[in-house]
Amino acid sequence: MIDMHLPILLIVVPLVSAPLCVLLRQKTLVWAFASLVCVASLGIASMLLIRVLEEGVISYAIGGWIAPWGIEYRVDTINAFVLLLVSIIAAVLMFFALPSVADEISGKQHYLFYTAYLLCFTGLMGIAITGDAFNVFVFLEISSLSSYTLIALGRDRRALTASYQYLIMGTLGATFIVIGIGLMYMMTGTLNMFDLSERLPAMFETRTAMVAFAFLTVGMLIKLAMFPMHMWLPNAYCYAPSLVTAFLAATATKVSIYVFLRFTFTVWGAEFVFEKLKLDAFLIPLSLIGIYVASLSAIYQTNIKRLLAYSSVAQIGYMMLGIGFVSITGLTGGIVHLFNHALMKAALFLSVGCAVLRLGSSDLADWKGLGRRMPVTMAAFVLAGLSLIGVPLTVGFVSKWYLILAALEKGWWPIALLALLSSLLAVIYVWRVVEVAYFQKADDDSNVKEAPLMMQISMWVLTGATLYFGIQTDLTVNVAQRAAGLLLGVTP
Amino acid sequence: MRHQGIPRVVSKWLIAPILLFALYVQFHGDFGPGGGFQAGVIFAAAVVLYALIFGLQAAKQIVKPRIVETLVALGVLLYAGTGLVSLFLGYNFLDYTALDPDNAPHGQHLGIFLVELGVGITVAAVMIAIFFSFAGRRRLR
């Protein structure tokens, strides 16, 4: 019986646990409880993915109201994959959380921190699982509002302005999305995504459809931090607490990209978006410019968290580039990169978090000689950094391989070349950190201990995953290929 | 404003009816305009009025911040709990028919009633909490 209710349990378990955290209050107890919830969610998400791969689409009618009248949760290969990704990250980060949160968040706020964390997690999972367009917006707000809180909890006072800036941009994006959804509802009288996809084609010629699509797309692009709408991201990632940066970098933008995939391919359909409106003519150049501009900005940063944040903007460019190819290989590359980048960026931000715990700073200048002072942490940073560059045997290589393959498949070799050359920029910004950490002498020779074991567990699990999935690509690539086939309406 | 006669007397007169009106909007929401959200805001407005006239400290003595925080959580739990009850009774989440399978409309009615109560409690508590945290800020010198 419980099998039937898996989709709703995935959302309700963290949702109910969030207020329970407020009632529990006691620091360690709340942490243990939140960890348990994240692990349980991971279990449910894996069961869902296995079932979806075996049986196909799972649909759940909330309140017993059958779709399209009621809200439907609809799980297929694509969102099962995203759900698994988000729950893996949330669960793995919980080890890191105990010492890191104890260090960065004042003791009185711990239970509120975990409440917001679970709410953010609920929101992200909800966005991914729902098959109802308006429900996407509701969960988007749940995850966004809680992430504003989480960012504002950063130690630096600038975290407040960063959070506020994100709030303004995030609200703008969400408003655009809801205007788009409202217009779609006006035209078709339905909010169910599947139902929308059947009713919208009759409206394609109307101006309302164009306007709805435009609002929706711009809103989603703001949310996923597509260049040039990425300005909220570097500050938010830079000043948020270490744990929050890692969590958001690995999940929030990824879920937004999923929303983009869902709306453009499933709801509107590739034919309308890419053949009639030629969105790819806009997406591909912007992605490429984004990759270059953001990578160049990353090179000039003096704060490592900010450097990695700019690199995130560049990596989002790769994902959107893959999507812009509108081919099985391109989408596979985009989706695989979505998963892979989550792993490596989380690993990188966690290693920065370890250093921040001991040094109290993520300024490049303070990292002099860190290779000798915290060798284990820096080793993880270098390994995950290699992934970012796309060195063979790491996950970064796998996704870039598919992206370049997709470009060559289309005969667009200049794009393939540009994508390859951009990796050199990643070499430069990763090298800057490596150079400072390994080849410069520390200003003070005081001994620095390695980060606590709990933090290293999280860091190494993710770093290990970047290597494991770099060699063993069956799971990620197969699932991504099936997802790409589903999105394009062909079975590979 | 403690020393101003007219606001004191008028608000003493008004606070009880405001609270009553909040309950009316809450529980009559099934048949007329209203519901948990509006009722919660109206209820919180009474507390805010009390705090404005008699001071923040006095208001915090009546409505303790710790209790407000608990109520924020409890309202959500009541909502989700109603859904979980139907889940445990073998129906889908939030399928209120589960609450009275023999008489589905009655079950639906009861379900909406409980869920709206949850909404009302959380909204009122959140409004009060927001007011407390803003009013409690000291001015920077």
Biggest interface pair, counts: A-B, 16 and 20 residues
> Would you count the extended β strands of chain A for me?
2
The percent range for helix content of chain B is: over 70%
Helices of chain B, by number, come to 5
Nearest-integer average pLDDT of chain A:
92
Radius of gyration of chain A: 21 Å
Largest sheet of chain A: 2 strands, antiparallel
Weakly predicted, low-confidence segments of chain B: none
Distance between the termini of chain B: 23 Å
Order of helices and strands of chain A: HHEEHHHHHHHHHHHHHHHHHH
Distance between the termini of chain A: 33 Å
Task: Provide an overview of this structure.
The complex is a heterodimer of chains A (about 500) and B (about 140). By secondary structure, chain A is an all-alpha fold. Chain A is about 75% helix and about 0% strand. Chain A has a domain at about 320-490. Chain A is built from 20 helices and two strands. Chain A is globular. The mean pLDDT of chain A is about 90. The model of chain B has no long low-confidence stretch (mean pLDDT about 90). Chain B has about 140 residues and is mainly alpha-helical. Chain B has one domain. The two termini of chain B are about 25 Å apart. Classes of the chains: A mainly alpha (about 500), B mainly alpha (about 140). The interface of A and B includes residues 12, 20, 61 and 62 of A.
Descriptive tags:
heterodimer, A: about 500 residues, mainly alpha, two-stranded antiparallel sheet, about 75% helix, about 0% strand, globular, B: about 140 residues, 5 helices
